[in-house]
Structure formats: C-alpha cells, structure tokens
Amino acid sequence: MKVLLINGSPHEKGTTYMALKKAADTLEGLGFEAEIFHVEKLGTICMDCRVCKKKGNNRCAFDDSVNRALEKAESADGFIFGTPVHFASASGLMTAFMDRAFYAGGGLFSHKPAAAVSCARRAGTTATMDQMNKYMTINQMPIVSSQYWNMVYGAVAEDAPKDEEGMQTMETLAKNMAWILSCIEAGKKAGIHPPAPEPAVRTNFIR
C-alpha cells in the first residue's frame, strides 16, 4: 500500500519536508510505500472554468503540478498534506493546489484516509490544520490523527529535528496511518466497501 505525502511549501527541502520525511521514513519502516511530492510553482489558481467537470477525467484544465499529483493520487491509498504556515493559514501555493486538486480530482481522494501537517516558526498551526481538514471532510476522507496535533516547529529545516515532540508526533501519525490502511484493507478482503454515494441535495438559502 502507498501513502502520498504532498509538500506544499515553496521551499522543497524546508521544515515541511523534514516533517513529512519523518512520517515517510516511519511508513517505509513499517513496509509501506511512501512518496513525497513537492508542489512546484503553479500557473494559476482555480478559475472555476469547470472544464474538469465537463471532461470528468479527474484532471485540471491547466496542466501543471496539480495534474502530476493527481496522476500519483490514482494509485495512492492514503495521503498526508503538509504546508508551512503563512499568516495563520496554509501557504498560497498549497491553498491553490488544494482548491484545484480537490475540485478537479475529488474522486481520487474520496474515502481514502488522510492527514494535514502544519509547520511554523511560532503560531497559526491549528488554524492552518482546520483549513486543511475542510478539504478532506467535504470529500468523505477519514482523518488520521496523532498523539498531538500534527504540527512541527522550526524557522528553517535544521530546526525541525530539534522539535522532538513534533518528530514523535509525525512518527505516531505514520503508525496510525499504517494501522488504518491495514484495517481498511482487511475490511475490503472481508467484503466491506465504502457506502454508495447519496444523490446530492443542495439547500437554497435564497427565499
């Protein structure tokens, strides 16, 4: 089984990478495949052009790093989304990525376990996690937790390993991800599958 770890930091090998690498190394030690994917510079934000919905191919109309990630998402069983904190929110890069990836390729994520990881020098981590978790919960993805909120502190990459609690949290997160994936796999073998989707019902607030 494979876990895809998305690095939404402008710095490919910064603090966010170090947090994700700790989780990836732990997963690999448990016999799981783990790949860290760095979101490269995007050409655009989501334009709400809805071309992806018309084509129905789980790809964005703008062909860049989003589509590269969606290609990998097809074979992934679980996800960990990592982002630095910028103004108490996910990075602009990660926000644009999540908007486009989940709008165009939501079907590739549905019912697969996921976790959000936030990294900061000081504050804004929990607000960022709240933002990130909303993408997952609207897409019926089981949220994987740890012994503490999934956050690592450090201004630069070299700081991350010094946050011993943060590193332990990443290790526990990876172990919990492995456990949940194993439970899902056992359920599938026993004939247990995700529930069929319900027909969409939309509330009209205009009266």
CA radius of gyration is: 17 Å
Residue share in β-strands: 15-25%
Basic shape: globular
- Residue-averaged pLDDT: 97
Helix content: 25-40%
Structural class: alpha/beta
What are the main properties of this structure?
6 strands, 207 residues, single chain, 6 helices, 40% helix, six-stranded mixed beta sheet, globular, alpha/beta
Structure description:
The chain has 207 residues and is an alpha/beta fold. It has 6 helices and 6 strands. It has helices spanning 15-29, 51-55, 65-73, 92-105, 125-137, 164-189; strands at residues 2-7, 33-38, 78-86, 89-90, 114-120, 151-153. Strands 1, 2, 3, 4, 5 and 6 form a 6-stranded mixed β-sheet that branches. Helix 5 links the parallel strand 5 (114-120) and strand 6. Helix 1 (15-29) crosses helix 6 (164-189) and helix 3 (65-73) crosses helix 4 (92-105). The protein starts with a strand and ends in an 18-residue tail after the last helix.
What does the secondary structure layout of this molecule look like, with pairings?
Elements lengths: L1 E6 L7 H15 L3 E6 L12 H5 L9 H9 L4 E9 L2 E2 L1 H14 L8 E7 L4 H13 L13 E3 L10 H26 L18
Parallel strand pairs: 1-2, 1-3, 3-5, 5-6
Antiparallel strand pairs: 3-4
Helix pairs in contact: 1-6, 3-4
